[in-house]
Specification:
The protein has about 425 residues and is α/β, with parallel strands linked by helices. The protein has a ten-stranded mixed sheet, sandwiched between helices. Strands 14, 16, 17 and 18 form a four-stranded mixed sheet that branches. Helix 4 runs parallel beside helix 6. The radius of gyration is 21 Å and the shape is globular. It binds guanosine-5'-diphosphate, 6-O-phosphoryl inosine monophosphate (IMO) and magnesium ion. Guanosine-5'-diphosphate (GDP) binds next to helix 1 and strand 3.
Length: about 425
């Protein structure tokens, strides 16, 4: 059976965790393929909110297997905290959680390096979540990294020491004031490694291959969003992995011709956390309303998210790069009460009107061209059927489907599992 993908199409936080949780009943296996604890995926059911960082969002379903793929980077300390929270909820994760031996480990010194690198950049900082993501992927591509499977080797602590020593020298090189007690950090790290080692490590590409062969259904869960992709995002204000469809191939070992549906998920408006260009960003009351009503605070760092109108130029680009086959629109409920809604349909770029995402979308290069539509007044949060959706929202959806040439199959009207309308 083919593998379906669920990908964020904006700058992350589109609502991937919620939708993966909703879709899990249709799948045997949920697999994360990139990113790490920089992600924060929120699930809400039975009146309770859960935030996952590295563990796939299918973990609350007893029957689904959850795989942390080779493309993911794991911080054992954060991973252990996630496991502890699951245990509090009586989730029997030992039966349903698998970890790829090829996934790379985030060391305490990777986190310190991230902090040193950001501090040294001053105003030009990326706005990283400071979870050590960039330095860990650098060691991976630099062929210096330590993988989950290495912890099964007798001499792995020597390998660890050599790398940590090198990192300390690099931290000194940055010449910024980073205070740390490595001994203390390592105590937590090695304790957490023992917990990690009590879980099931697998050769995950073989597992996926056999699962496909025996007809199991698999959903690959993306982290971050297309505009944070290392190649296709707003570089350098991006994360350090491929968040787009291709990342699922390298992050799990799936051949491109084995990809089935590509679900693309987006908010009815746009948010971004961290630095970097954001052409439709609002600095007025409308942006403030989106942030307040949408509770736009980072699930990992608690930072407030920047808010703005929907950017169709960027969204179309994300649909193309990923080959999106179905769309899911989240947080339409947050726009209830806006008299009119703006949608960016083109950019004015170097004197020309363009509808593709150019090399550079810094504010001095791009002016936004908007189409305006009527808003809706109705509270959507109690609606359960597509037939209940107000006319103006249907007009908004029709417009987007036409522009994006892709059907919108799910409209989400609140954070809870149940607040999900299928079209
Ligand atoms: P993810 O990183 O893509 O999983 O998204 P996050 O969990 O970081 O952020 C999405 C936020 O929006 C979370 O707080 C969700 O509970 C919430 N959410 C998801 N869908 C909806 C929706 O349709 N309406 C509202 N109001 N909130 C939603
Ligand atoms: P989910 O999966 C939103 C952003 C950071 C920063 C940049 C680089 O919850 O959608 P990094 O820690 O990777 O070095 O940060 O990317 N970022 C996210 N923004 N959602 C995320 O994940 C993000 N993961 C990283 O804010 O701007
Ligand atoms: Mg998030």
């Amino acid at each position: 059976m083919a593998v379906d993908l669920l990908l964020g199409l904006q700058w992350g936080d589109e609502g991937k965790g919620k939708i993966v949780d909703v879709l899990t009943s249709k799948y045997n296996i949920i697999a994360r393929f990139q990113g790490g604890p920089n992600a924060g995926h929120t699930l809400v059911f039975n009146g309770k909110k859960h935030v996952l960082h590295t563990i796939p969002s299918g973990i609350f379903h007893e029957d689904a297997m959850n795989l942390v793929g080779n493309g993911v980077v794991i911080d054992p300390v954060i991973f252990k905290k996630e496991l502890d929270k699951l245990a509090e909820q009586d989730v029997d994760y030992r039966k349903t959680l698998l970890i790829s031996r090829k996934a790379h480990l985030i060391l305490p010194t990777h986190r310190l390096l991230d902090a040193a690198s950001e501090a040294s950049k001053g105003k030009a900082k990326i706005g990283s979540t400071l979870k050590g993501i960039g330095p860990t992927y650098m060691d991976k591509t630099g062929r210096n990294g330590i993988r989950v499977g290495d912890t099964e080797l007798v001499d792995w602590k020597d390998k660890y020491r050599a790398l940590a020593n090198k990192h300390e020298a690099m931290i000194d090189f940055y010449d910024v004031d980073i205070q740390y007690d490595l001994e203390e950090l390592e105590k937590d790290f090695f304790e957490a490694i023992d917990v990690l080692k009590s879980l099931t490590f697998i050769d995950s590409e073989e597992y996926i291959f056999q699962a496909m062969k025996s007809g199991k259904s698999i959903l690959a869960e993306g982290a971050q969003g297309s505009l944070l992709d290392i190649d296709f995002g707003t570089y350098p204000f991006v994360t350090s992995s491929n968040t787009t469809a291709a990342g699922a191939c390298t992050g799990l070992g799936i051949a491109p011709n084995k990809i089935g549906e590509v679900y693309g998920i987006f908010k009815a408006y746009t948010t971004r956390v961290g630095s970097g260009p954001f052409p439709t960003e609002l600095f007025d009351e409308d942006g403030e309303t989106m942030g307040r009503v949408g509770h736009e605070f980072g699930a990992t760092t608690g930072r407030s998210r920047r808010c703005g109108w929907l950017d169709l130029v960027a969204l179309k680009y994300a649909c193309q790069v990923n080959g999106v086959t179905q769309l899911m629109m989240m947080k339409g409920d947050v726009l209830s009460g806006f008299k009119s809604l703006k949608i960016c349909t083109a950019y004015r770029y170097k004197g020309e009107t363009i509808t593709h995402l150019p090399y550079n979308i810094d504010p001095e290069n791009v002016d936004v061209i908007y189409t305006e539509m009527n808003g809706w007044k109705e509270d959507l949060t109690k609606m359960t059927e597509a037939s209940q959706l107000p006319k103006e929202l249907n007009d908004y959806i029709d417009f987007l489907e036409k522009e994006l040439e892709t059907p919108i199959k799910i409209v989400s009207v609140g954070p809870d599992r149940k607040q999900t309308i299928f079209r």
